[in-house]
């Protein structure tokens, strides 16, 4: 497994917000963490990339366990989070270059392979035209693509994304989700939080549904999202019909 979370418990503000959560993501898998607001999705991601210290439980990424040096973790795990605001006077290219930091020694300069990883990440996130722009001048969606490009430049084994499509227009939503599928096909393990259950059905191999900090169900999307769960967890009367109402087949 590239990502393994076992029995994870986390307390925040004196309250238990995640209890006994298990999530496993294999290489090549796109795994969605879904659940209502406040159900603990971001907290699980934050424990994985060590933005918070979990209470109990095992958290392991590509064999790098919970107490291993941070630098080892940064070589295998990239995270695109909601907190990533770009408020320094840097160009888009300079932010994406930061993705190479875990692979460089303290005084090392960028090597040819680092520059190639940055160029590929910029191209993949469709940022070539914005490469020399000051990141502080970008729109929300453009900034979100910069954060993704920085993660891609890192060339990780596992990728975490917290609501990666929430600022994106329709074309870029599709573009990012299709890109995640392609990255998974190349062997990456992808764990993302999503609110749009239609995206979850269309793009995820498996889902873990969180409710009040606990795993309510996990498995293939159409097995997991039945009428009873949609009512009890999400508070909607709904059914998953085969085939989405709006089917996007590619970008033009
Ligand atoms: N720093 C904190 N201090 C206290 N409580 C916190 C803190 N961070 C998160 N929480 C609480 O932990 C719970 C889980 O939050 P989390 O952000 O993981 O939920 P989420 O499922 O990602 O929600 P959303 O869909 O709204 O993004 C929420 O009740 C939240 O209020």
Could you explain how this protein is built, in words?
There is one protein chain. With 252 residues, the protein is of the alpha/beta class. It contains 9 helices and 9 strands. It has helices at residues 41-48, 70-76, 92-97, 112-124, 140-153, 170-185, 197-203, 221-224, 227-234; strands spanning 3-12, 15-25, 30-34, 58-61, 77-80, 158-162, 189-193, 206-211, 214-219. The strands form 2 sheets. The chain has a 6-stranded mixed β-sheet with strand order 5-6-7-3-8-9, with helices on both faces. β1 and β2 form a beta hairpin. α4 packs antiparallel against α5 (140-153). The longest helix is centred in the last third of the chain and has 16 residues, at 170-185. The structure holds adenosine-5'-triphosphate. Adenosine-5'-triphosphate binds next to α1.
Distance between the termini: 36 Å
How many β-strand stretches? 9
Helix and strand pattern: EEEHEHEHHHEHEHEEHH
Counting DSSP H or I runs of 4 or more residues, the number of helices is: 9
Shape category: globular
- In terms of quaternary structure, the protein is single chain
Main beta-sheet annotation: 6 strands, mixed
Helix content: 25-40%
Poorly predicted spans = none
Strand content: 15-25%
* Gyration radius, in Å: 18 Å
Mean pLDDT: 91
Structural class: alpha/beta
Give the strand order, joined by hyphens, for the main sheet: 5-6-7-3-8-9
List the ligand species.
Answer: adenosine-5'-triphosphate
List the helices and strands and how they pair.
Blueprint: E1 3-12, E2 15-25, E3 30-34, H1 41-48, E4 58-61, H2 70-76, E5 77-80, H3 92-97, H4 112-124, H5 140-153, E6 158-162, H6 170-185, E7 189-193, H7 197-203, E8 206-211, E9 214-219, H8 221-224, H9 227-234
Parallel strand pairs: 3-7, 3-8, 5-6, 6-7
Antiparallel strand pairs: 1-2, 1-4, 8-9
Helix pairs in contact: 4-5
The structure holds adenosine-5'-triphosphate.
């Amino acid at each position: 497994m590239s990502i393994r979370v076992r029995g994870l418990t986390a307390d925040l503000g004196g309250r238990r917000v995640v209890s006994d959560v298990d999530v496993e993501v294999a290489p090549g898998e796109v795994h969605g963490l879904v659940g209502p607001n406040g159900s603990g999705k971001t907290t699980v991601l934050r424990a994985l990339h060590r933005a918070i210290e979990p209470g109990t439980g095992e958290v392991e990424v590509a064999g790098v366990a919970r107490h291993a040096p941070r630098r080892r973790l940064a070589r295998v795990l990239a995270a695109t989070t909601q907190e990533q605001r770009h408020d320094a006077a840097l160009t888009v290219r300079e932010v994406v270059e930061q993705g190479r930091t875990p692979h460089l020694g303290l005084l090392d300069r960028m090597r040819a392979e680092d520059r190639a990883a940055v160029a590929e990440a910029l191209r993949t996130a469709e940022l070539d035209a914005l490469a020399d722009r000051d990141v502080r001048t970008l729109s929300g969606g453009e900034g979100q693509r910069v954060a993704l490009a920085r993660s891609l430049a890192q060339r990780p084994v596992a990728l975490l994304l917290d609501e990666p499509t929430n600022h994106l227009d329709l074309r870029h939503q599709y573009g990012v989700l299709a890109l995640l599928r392609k990255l998974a096909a190349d062997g990456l393990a992808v764990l993302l939080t999503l609110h749009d259950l239609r995206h979850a059905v269309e793009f995820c191999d498996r889902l873990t549904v969180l409710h009040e900090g606990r795993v309510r169900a996990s498995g293939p999307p159409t097995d997991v999202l039945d009428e009873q769960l949609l009512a009890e967890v999400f508070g909607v009367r709904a059914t998953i019909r085969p085939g989405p109402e709006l089917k996007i087949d590619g970008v033009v």
